[in-house]
Design a protein that fits this description.
Mean pLDDT: 93
Distance between the termini: 7 Å
Number of helices: 16
GO molecular function: oxidoreductase activity
Oligomer: single chain
CATH topology of the largest domain: FAD/NAD(P)-binding domain
Domain Amine oxidase: 28-516
Protein name: C-3',4' desaturase CrtD
Radius of gyration: 23 Å
CATH architecture of the largest domain: 3-Layer(bba) Sandwich
Pfam families: Amino_oxidase
Bound molecules: flavin-adenine dinucleotide
Structural class: alpha/beta
Length: 525
C-alpha cells in the first residue's frame, strides 16, 4: 500500500491507530525526520519512551533550573547551515538563539581561544600553537577539507554509496574539481600530522585530540581525516545556544511539529515492530499497512517506519526481521568502540561564573594522560539573563567528559555512589581553573553517568554519541539509513554521518528524502 499524500491534519486524530510513517524515538534525529515528513503532507506519529522529547540533546528541570542532559550547543543552525535548512524547509519560526563567538581551550600550559571568525582563529592558532611553514601548510590542508566537505554536507551528501544514483549525487555535492580530495578518505588525522612533521608537538596534537574526541569520539591516530577536519571546524560552522538551552529549543520544535498536525506520543516506549508483509512465506495482505508498532499503550499501523533509536535498540525492537539481521555485523564490529559520558549539572549564584568573556570552555589537565575521565571536559554556562535556564541571579552550568563504559559496570550501589561522587568533584575542581569559586554555594549539584543515560534514554550500557569513528566504521562503512527491509529506515547518531546535532539533522534530511521518493508509488512495492 502506498503512502497517502492526503493532507493529514485530521487523519492522525481521526484514526489514532494508523499513520503513514511511524517514527521511533523522539530525539533530534527522530523529531527532525518526522517534522520534515509531516511538513511534506504525510501523517506521522513519533513514539518517545521518555516523558518529553529530546533524548541525548534533551533537558531536565530542577529547582527552577533547566539543564541540558547532553548537547548544549546546536551546530550549523546559522543561515545556510544544515540546521537552518531544517527550519526553513519545514516552515519553522526562527530560533530564539545566539551564535557563540567561540570558546576557550585551556591546555596544561596555554590558553587558546577558538574564535568563530576564521581570520581571528587563524591568527590565534599560529600565535599559540606554532607559526612554521609546516603549521601553515597543515592548517591550509585542514581548512580546504573542511570547506569542501562542509559544503558537501550542506548539499546533502549520501553515504554509504549504495547505488549509481548515490554516487552521482555525491559527485555533484563534492564538485568535480574537488574530486582529488576524496583520496583523503583513507587517511587519519594522525597521518596528516605526520606528513607535515607535526605529530610530535604536544600542544597542537592535544588541542586537535580534544576537538576530535568531542566531535567524532576518536583519537587523532584513529579518526578519519575528513571527519576530523569537519569536527575541528564546527565552531566555524557555528555553535548556537538557544534561549532556555535545549529546553527552549525543544519547546519551539515540538510546538511547530504539533501545529503541523504531528502526533508526538511521550511515555510511549516501543516494544516491538512487526512487518505485516510475511516475506518468508511470500504472503502479502493487500491493502494492509506494512508495519505494526507495538507499545504498552496500544499499537499503531504504519506504511513505513523510521527508527531513530540507537542501532542496538532498533535491532531489539525489530527482532526477527531483516532489519535486525542486517544490523548484527555492525553491532558486533562497533561494540568495542562505544563510549559513555559523565556530566555535572550545577545551579550556581551568578558570581561563581563571573569574570569570563566566553560562556563555553574546554579543559585538559595533562598532556601525558589519555583523554577522557576529566582530562578533556566541555563546560557550558547558560547566558546571563537567560531566565528559562536559571532563576534570576543564577546560572546553569554543565560540565561533561567522556568515560569508558567498562568502569561503570558491575559496581555495587556503594561503589557506584563513590565513583560518581569522586568524578563529579574532580570535574568541578578542574573547572575552578576557569571559575575559581564554582560550586561553593551550589543550589543544585547533580551528576549524570552512563547509568543515568541508560535509565533516561534507554541506551544500552548508557553508551552515548554513536561509535568512535575510525576508517573501518565510518563513511562508506557506516551503518546505512536503508535497511534490508523496504519501508523501514534508520537514522540517528549510530548511523551515518554519526554523532552530534548537525549529523542527526543531516541524516533526517536524507532519510526523509528517501521516504518521500518512495511515497507516490508505495513504500512497500
Ligand atoms: C554529554 C553529551 C554532550 C553532547 N554535546 C553535544 C553538543 O554540544 N553539540 C552537539 O551537536 N551534539 C552533542 N552531543 C551529541 C548529541 O546530543 C547526540 O548525538 C544526539 O542528540 C543524538 O540524537 P539521536 O536522535 O540520534 O538519539 P537520542 O537523542 O538518543 O534519541 C533517541 C530517543 O529514543 C528514545 N527511545 C529509546 N528507546 C526507545 C523505545 N524503545 N521506544 C521509544 N523511544 C525510545 C530515547 O528516549 C531518545 O529520546 C552530546 C552528547 C552527549 C551525551
Amino acid at each position: 500500500m502506498g503512502i497517502s499524500r492526503t493532507p493529514t491534519l485530521t487523519r492522525t486524530r481521526d484514526l489514532p491507530g494508523r499513520c503513514d510513517v511511524a517514527v521511533l524515538g523522539g530525539g533530534l534525529a527522530g523529531l527532525a525526520t518526522a517534522l520534515r515528513l509531516q511538513a511534506a503532507g504525510l501523517s506521522t506519529v513519533v513514539f518517545e519512551a521518555h516523558g518529553h522529547a529530546g533524548g541525548c540533546a534533551g533537558y531536565f528541570r530542577h529547582r527552577g533550573f533547566s539543564f541540558d542532559v547532553g548537547a548544549t550547543t546546536l551546530v550549523d543552525f546559522a543561515p545556510g547551515g544544515v540546521g537552518d535548512e531544517l527550519l526553513a524547509s519545514t516552515g519553522a519560526p526562527a530560533l530564539d538563539a545566539e551564535q557563540l563567538p567561540g570558546y576557550v581551550a585551556w591546555l596544561p600550559d596555554r590558553v587558546v581561544t577558538l574564535h568563530r571568525e576564521q581570520s581571528r582563529w587563524h591568527a590565534e592558532r599560529l600565535r599559540t600553537l606554532g607559526d612554521s611553514r609546516a603549521h601553515r601548510r597543515f592548517w591550509a590542508e585542514l581548512d580546504l577539507l573542511a570547506e569542501v566537505f562542509w559544503a558537501a554536507s550542506r548539499s546533502g551528501i549520501r553515504l554509504p554509496v549504495r547505488t549509481p544514483a548515490d554516487a552521482l549525487h555525491d559527485l555533484r555535492a563534492v564538485g568535480l574539481r574537488n574530486l582529488p580530495l576524496v583520496r583523503h578518505l583513507g587517511r587519519t588525522m594522525g597521518d596528516a600530522l605526520r606528513a607535515h612533521g607535526l605529530r610530535g608537538q604536544d600542544s597542537l596534537v592535544s588541542l586537535l585530540g580534544m576537538l576530535v574526541e568531542d566531535t567524532v569520539h576518536s583519537t587523532v591516530d584513529r579518526a578519519p581525516l575528513i571527519n576530523a577536519a569537519l569536527g575541528v571546524t564546527i565552531r566555524g560552522a557555528g555553535l548556537t545556544r538557544h534561549r532556555g538551552g535545549m529546553h527552549g529549543f525543544w519547546r519551539a520544535l515540538v510546538t511547530h511539529y504539533r501545529a503541523l498536525g504531528g502526533d508526538l506520543r511521550t511515555g510511549c516506549r516501543v516494544q516491538r515492530v512487526t512487518d505485516r508483509q510475511d516475506s518468508l512465506l511470500g504472503r502479502r495482505r493487500h491493502g494492509d499497512p506494512g508495519f505494526t508498532v507495538h507499545t504498552a499503550r496500544g499499537s499503531v499501523d504504519a506504511d513505513a517506519v523510521v527508527s531513530a533509536l540507537p542501532a542496538p535498540v532498533t535491532a531489539e525492537v525489530a527482532a526477527g526481521t531483516p532489519v535486525a539481521a542486517g544490523l548484527r555485523r555492525y553491532l558486533v564490529r562497533d561494540e568495542p568502540d562505544l563510549g559513555g559520558a559523565v556530566v555535572v549539572f550545577l545551579g550556581v549564584p551568578e558570581h561563581e561564573v563571573a569574570g569570563q568573556e566566553f560562556t563555553h570552555h574546554q579543559l585538559m589537565q595533562d598532556y601525558r594522560r589519555p583523554l577522557g575521565e576529566g582530562n578533556n571536559m566541555f563546560v557550558s554556562v547558560s547566558s546571563p539573563g537567560d531566565e528559562i535556564s536559571a532563576p534570576p541571579g543564577h546560572r546553569a552550568v554543565m560540565i561533561s567528559t567522556h568515560t569508558e563504559l567498562a568502569g561503570w559496570q558491575g559496581l555495587s550501589e556503594a561503589e557506584y555512589a563513590v565513583r560518581k561522587r569522586e568524578i563529579g568533584q574532580r570535574l568541578v575542581e578542574h573547572t575552578r581553573r576557569v571559575y575559581p569559586r564554582l560550586g561553593e554555594q551550589a543550589v543544585v549539584w547533580q551528576v549524570g553517568t552512563p547509568r543515568s543515560y541508560e535509565r533516561f534514554t534507554w541506551r544500552p550500557q548508557g553508551a552515548v554519541g554513536g561509535v568512535r569513528q575510525t576508517l573501518r566504521n565510518s563513511n562508506q562503512f557506516a551503518v546505512p539509513h536503508r535497511t534490508g527491509l523496504p519501508g523501514f529506515w534508520q537514522v540517528g547518531d549510530t548511523t551515518w554521518p554519526g554523532l552530534g546535532t548537525v549529523a542527526c539533522v543531516l541524516g533526517s534530511r536524507l532519510v526523509a528524502q528517501d521516504v518521500l521518493r518512495h511515497a507516490p508509488t508505495g513504500v512497500r512495492s
